[in-house]
Structure formats: C-alpha cells, structure tokens
Design brief:
Blueprint (H helix, E strand, L loop, with lengths): L2 H5 L2 H11 L4 H8 L4 H19 L2 H10 L1
Helix pairs in contact: 2-4
C-alpha cells in the first residue's frame, strides 16, 4: 500500500469513491454523519478498506471501463 493511500481518511476515501462510481445511500449517510454508529463501524471495518484498495488499483479501474 502506498503512503498516500494510508494518509487519506475514511471520509476522503468515500468522497473519492463517490466522485468516480455511483454509490449507495449508505455512503452518503456516512458522509453526512447520519449513519447509525454500528453501521458506520461496519462500513469502516469491512467496506472502506476494500474501496481504498480499489481506488488505487489500475487493474480494477480498467476492468470497470471494460464493463461499460
């Protein structure tokens, strides 16, 4: 993992994800601070690390382009 990946906050990761890909309401609720604490913790623990990796993966981006 690159250093700049580690420096981005969870909120910045979600913001960047939503700027490139369509996201669900859960992400928007998270950014607004309206997501229930337990759901936010689950998002931070299991989903955001995956988004972090995918945002920095050229192969992931290319596969998304190929699907369109």
């Amino acid at each position: 993992m690159r250093n700049d990946q580690l420096e981005l906050s969870d909120q910045e990761i979600v913001e960047r994800w939503l700027s490139v890909y369509t996201g669900g309401d859960k992400f928007r609720l998270y950014l607004n601070g309206d997501l229930h604490a337990e759901a936010a913790s689950e998002l931070e623990r299991s989903v955001i690390p995956v988004l972090r990796d995918r945002l920095h993966s050229l192969s992931w981006f290319m596969s998304c382009l190929n699907l369109q």
